[in-house]
Design brief:
Elements (H helix, E strand, L loop, with lengths): L2 E5 L3 H12 L3 E5 L23 E4 L5 H11 L3 H8 L1 E2 L4 E4 L1 H14 L3 E4 L11 E3 L7 H11 L4 E7 L2 E3 L9 E3 L12 E6 L1 H13 L7 H4 L19 H6 L26 E7 L6 E4 L8 H8 L10 E3 L2 E7 L2 H4 L5 E2 L2 E6 L9 H19 L12 H11 L20 H4 L9 H22 L3
Parallel strand pairs: 1-2, 1-7, 2-6, 7-17
Antiparallel strand pairs: 3-5, 4-5, 8-15, 9-13, 9-14, 10-11, 11-12, 12-13, 16-17
Helix pairs in contact: 1-11, 2-11, 2-14
């Protein structure tokens, strides 16, 4: 039986390996940890969530929720495990990150068609291969990809949010609630730290002036001449200090926006609010939502303790920044995720320019199924652009190269609805939420038709 190589045991690689193995192919899944660390991972488990523990909205009329529903329909292992290890998070799908990674690892280790090989890959095999090495691709493999593509790597810098001990949060100031009363009626899924205008301004000023961490050697190794002042950040995951530096109210309209929340002490909406989300099943760890940072660790202690309710907080993990690498997919890949000049080489995950946990899982699923279909002599899947996964694959393979940046699931990349749907006869034009629901309904309908036509 012909073997398939999957390089990288992150979200995309784990899903790709499972899909190919389920199609009765023998899979060699290569993961360099723990023999070679990345600088950002903390364990040797497969599918470890490095940044947040949230996979985004689970609501069916949100872009992330739609993408989840699409790949649930297509048989995603990782979404199945995520649903099994879910934590309270309002309308979002958040997981106990340790239980999630351990469960995925156990499922892959138990699969009779998967052989997990713990070693670094320094050359791209000639055999059927999926490269899902992720944003922290090793230097040796990066050089092999560079040699293959003949293109310079694109890059950006990503950041990780801190995690704190729940018992150290001052609940006389902080309060539990979900935005717009989503979740449990008596006790919300988030812990909220409310700011007055004066508290916000003091915190914002301290944040802007705080000292930042210099890049680590593993981040600098592939980018000669990069300096701390020349970072290329991904706009969708900016460090909070960078957001704060863009304007005094930037945080208040960004990760600290107070909409949908009422401070029970005052009965009014706060000037700004930091939300904390449960990070493990026990409930003793919480992460600072949207608070990716590159501040020095002592500065994180000093500045984040200016947040009301976190005056004496203790940290289980500090935030940090790391390099993310991705290829010039518009030049190099087809919408099937195949390399343009080699049919049996596919790329998946964040290295393709798809951003977000679920986008990584989804492209891993598609790459695994497509490589199996190629080897079985079947037509490869190229999902309709009206589906979220089809739209993501179309974007990363057709975007303008000059301004190509990682892309999360969003309705802006899906073809617009027909005018007859947007403005039904005799009725008002659909509002934003109604348009989203109509887009989601069309996507799932088109997906079902496409999968039926391809006997899936």
């Amino acid at each position: 039986m012909q073997k398939i190589n999957v390089i990288g045991g992150g979200l995309a690689g784990s899903e790709a390996a499972w899909q190919a193995a389920q199609a009765n192919f023998q899979v060699n899944l290569y993961e360099m940890r723990p023999a070679k660390e990345t600088g950002a991972h903390e364990s040797a488990d497969l599918a470890e969530l490095v940044c947040s523990n949230s996979l985004g909205s689970n609501l069916p009329d949100r872009a992330s929720g739609l993408l989840k529903n699409e790949i649930r329909r297509m048989g995603s292992l990782l979404l199945e495990v995520a649903d099994q290890t879910a934590l309270p998070a309002g309308g979002a799908l958040a997981v106990d990150r340790e239980r999630f990674a351990q469960a995925v690892t156990a499922r892959l280790e138990a699969h009779p068609n998967i052989n997990i090989i713990r070693e670094e890959v320094s050359e791209i095999p000639a055999e059927p291969t999926i490269v899902a090495s992720g944003p922290l691709t090793s230097d040796a493999l990066s050089q092999a990809i560079l040699k293959l593509t003949g293109e310079e790597h694109l890059y950006f810098f990503d950041a990780i949010a801190p995690i704190v001990h729940a018992e150290s949060i001052n609940m006389e100031i902080a309060f539990r609630a979900s935005r717009y009363n989503r979740g449990d009626e008596d006790e919300g899924d988030y812990i909220n730290c409310p700011f007055t205008k004066e508290e916000y301004e003091r915190f914002n000023n301290a944040l802007v002036e705080a000292e930042r961490i210099q890049l680590h050697s593993f981040e600098l190794s592939m980018e000669e001449g990069v300096t701390a002042g020349a970072h290329k950040y991904f706009e969708g995951c900016l460090p909070v200090e960078v957001i704060a530096s863009r304007g005094e109210k930037s945080l208040a309209f960004g990760p600290l926006r107070p909409v949908g929340l009422t401070d029970p002490r005052t009965g009014r909406r706060p000037y700004a609010v930091l939300q904390l989300r449960q990070d493990n099943l026990v409930g003793d760890l919480y992460n600072l939502v949207g608070f990716q940072t590159n501040l020095k660790f002592p500065e994180q202690r000093r500045v984040f303790r200016l947040i009301p309710g976190l005056e004496n907080v203790t940290f289980a993990r500090y935030g940090q920044m790391h390099r993310n690498t991705f290829i010039a997919s518009p030049r190099l890949l087809r919408p099937t995720l195949q390399f343009k000049t080699r049919d049996n080489l596919l790329f998946a995950g964040q290295i393709t320019g798809v951003e977000g946990y679920v986008g990584n899982i989804a492209t891993g699923l598609l790459a695994g199924q497509n490589l199996a279909r190629l080897l079985n002599g079947q037509a490869l899947l190229q999902l309709p652009p009206t589906t979220m996964l089809g739209a993501l694959c179309h974007y990363i393979t057709n975007a303008a190269e000059k301004d190509f940046q990682p892309m999360k699931a969003n309705f802006g990349i899906i073809p617009p609805l027909d005018e007859s749907v947007l403005r039904p006869a005799g009725k008002k034009r659909l509002g934003k939420r109604e348009r989203a629901a109509a887009n989601a309904a069309r996507a799932l309908s088109d997906l079902e038709i496409y999968l039926a036509e391809n006997s899936i």
